Amino acid sequence: MGEHAAQVVDKQALRAKYAEERDKRLRADGSAQYRRLETEFSDLATDPYTPRVEREPVTDHVTFAFIGGGFAGLVVGARLKDAGIDDVRILEKGGDFGGTWYWNRYPGAQCDTASMIYMPLLEETGHMPTEKYAHAPEIREHCSRIGKQYGLYDNALFHTQVSDLEWDDARKVWIVRTDRGDEFTAKYVGMGTGPLHVAKLPGLPGIENFKGKAFHTSRWDYAYTGGNPEGAPLSKLADKRVAIIGTGATAVQCVPHLARDAKELLVFQRTPSSVDVRNNKPLEREWFDGVAEPGWQKKWQENFVGNLAGGFAAEDLVQDGWTDLGHRIRKEIMNLPPEERTPANVMAAYEDADNQKMSEIRARAEAIVGGEAGKKLQAWYRQLCKRPCFHDEYLQAYNEPGCRLVDTDGKGVERITEKGVVANGVEYEVDCIIYASGFEVGTEYASRAGFQVTGRDGETLSQHWDGGMKTLHGLHMHGFPNAFMVQPTQAANMIANVPHNIVDHADTIAAVVSEAERRGAQTVEASAEAEKAWVDLLLTGLGARLGDTGCTPGYYNNEGEGFGEAAKYSVGHPAGAMGYFNHIDAWRKSGEYKGLEFA
Ligand code: NDP
C-alpha cells in the first residue's frame, strides 16, 4: 500500500471525526437558541461609550440619506461629497461613526484582515497604518478622520434608529422616519447596516437571574473592569473571578487580556476556533513611503483578491493566513497532471490542502498549551466551516496560572444561576459573566435592520426578497427607485475583505447619482429585466460556499440548518470577485449605465 492509499484512509477517518463532532453540536432549536440583546435585554444593550443627547425631531429635506455610520456610510458619503453632493446625511444608531468599530471596544480588538487593504481611504486621508493588523482604537479614529475630512459630521444624526423608509411616488422622495420622531425626505437613500450589528445572547435558562455583573463584548464596561480599549490593565478585575462564554473571533482576542488581569478566568467553550499564527508587526514609515505610490491601495486590494482565488497572482503583497490557504490549494492543484484537473479532483485537492492546514493548526494548539486543554482546544472541522482566527497570545493565555478552559464537549453552557454558570452539571460561581456570544446573521433583512423599506406601489423589501435576494449588481432593486444597498452579496462577495466591496459600491453610487443629476432625472431605478438577468447570471456560478450543512453548526450555516432555497441567491459573480470588479468597472466607464432607467 503506497503513500497515496494511506492518505485516503486518513482523509476518510478525518471526515468521520468531523461528522461526529458536528453531530454532537446539532440542536433542535437551531438559531432559535439565541436571544437578541437590544430587544430582550435593553438594560445590557445601553451604549456605554457616549451619552445620549436629547434633540428636536428633524423634518427637512436632504439629497442623500445613508443608514449606517460604519465604513459603508463613511465611504459612500466621502465619494458623494467628492462628486459635489453636499447635503449627505448619515443616520447611525451608535453615538459616533465607526459601526462595528464603534461598538466593539473590548480589550485586544483588532482587525483580522491586513490594515493596508482593510482600512478604507488610506490614500485619500494620507493615514499610514501603524501595524500590519491595526487595533480597534486606530480603526475607530480613522472612521472619525474620514468623517471630519469629508464634513460628514455636520449633518449626521447619531443615536438615531431608522424605523421606516417609504417611497413617496407623487413627490419622488423617500420619507425617512426614526425613533427620535424625525420625519424628513431624501431624494436618494443608501443602506449600509452591516451584517453583524445585532448582538445576541445565548437563550440560557436563568440568564436574567444572575446577581453579579454581566455584559456582551460589544458593550464592554470599562467602568467595571478598569483598563481601556488601548489595552491598559483591567485593574479592577484583579480580585474578580470572571467567566467568558464563547470562543469565537471576539473571545480569541479578549481572552489574553482577561487571563492576564483577572484573578481567575474561566473560558466556557462549546466549539474551539481554529487559531492560526498572527505575525503582527509594526509598519515602518520608510517601507510605507516606498510602496505608497498613487493607486497603491486598489492595487493591494486587487492583489489580495488574486491570491485568494486559487492563489494564481504572480506576487503576494499581503501575505497572511487568507492568502496562505489560496497558495496551498494552488500547490495541490498544480501537483495534478493538467488532464486530471477536473472539478472533482480540484475539490479533492482543496480538501487535501485544508486537511494539511487544519492538522498544523491542531498541532499548534497542542504544542503551545499541552495536556488535556491542548487537546480540547483543537478544532475538528474544515477551516472555512467557521470563521478562521489568527492570534499569537490566545492559546498562550491558557498557560497563565489563573486561566482555565471549561470545555463542554459541544454541549455548551446549560444555565445561569444567581451565582454563576452551570456547565457539565457543575455550578461555577463567578463575579462577572462576559458574553462573547456573537451577532445575529442571515435573518430576514428588515427584521435585522430594524426597519421596513416600502418601495413603489407599496411593495416592501421583505416582499421583494421573499424566497431570496434580488438585485442588480448587489446594489439596486427594481421597485425601489433612488435606493442603494451597500453590502457584498450578489456582487464581488469578497468576504475576507469587506471594505473592498464597499469602496467599489461607493464609486458606483457616486457615478450613478452624478449621472442622474447631470440628466436632471428625478429617479434612477434598475429595470425588472436587468435585475432578472443579473440574478440569472449569478445562478450560473458554482453556488454558495457558506451555509454548508455538512459543517459544524455556527452562524455560517444557520446553526447547521442551512439557509434553505434562499441560500442559492447569496452568491457573488460567477467569475469570482475580480470578475465582478472588472465587470462593474467597465460598466461604469461605458457611461451607458445599462440596466438602469433614468426618468
Ligand atoms: P461568534 O458567533 O463567532 O461566537 C460566539 C461564540 O459563543 C461561539 O464560540 C459559540 O459556540 C459560543 N456560544 C454560544 N452559545 C453558547 C453556549 N450556550 N455555551 C457556550 N458557548 C456558546 O461571535 P464573535 O463575536 O466571536 O464573532 C462574530 C464575528 O465577528 C466573527 O465571526 C467575525 O466575522 C467578526 N469578528 C471579526 C473580528 C476581526 O476581524 N477582527 C474580530 C471579532 C469578530 P459555537 O461555536 O459552538 O456556536
- The N- to C-terminal Cα distance equals 71 Å
**What count of domains describes the coordinates?**
2
How would a crystallographer describe the biggest sheet? 7 strands, mixed
Relative helix content: 25-40%
What percentage of the residues does DSSP assign to strands (E)?
A: 5-15%
Query: What structural class is derived from the secondary structure elements?
Result: alpha/beta
Q: Give a count of the beta strands, DSSP E runs of length 2 or more.
A: 21
Could you tell me the radius of gyration in angstroms? Answer: 24 Å
**Could you please say which CATH topology of the largest domain applies here?**
FAD/NAD(P)-binding domain
**Shape type:** globular
Bound molecules: NADPH dihydro-nicotinamide-adenine-dinucleotide phosphate
Number of H- or I-type helical stretches:
21
CATH homologous superfamily title of the largest domain: FAD/NAD(P)-binding domain
Low-confidence stretches: 1-6
CATH class of the largest domain: Alpha Beta
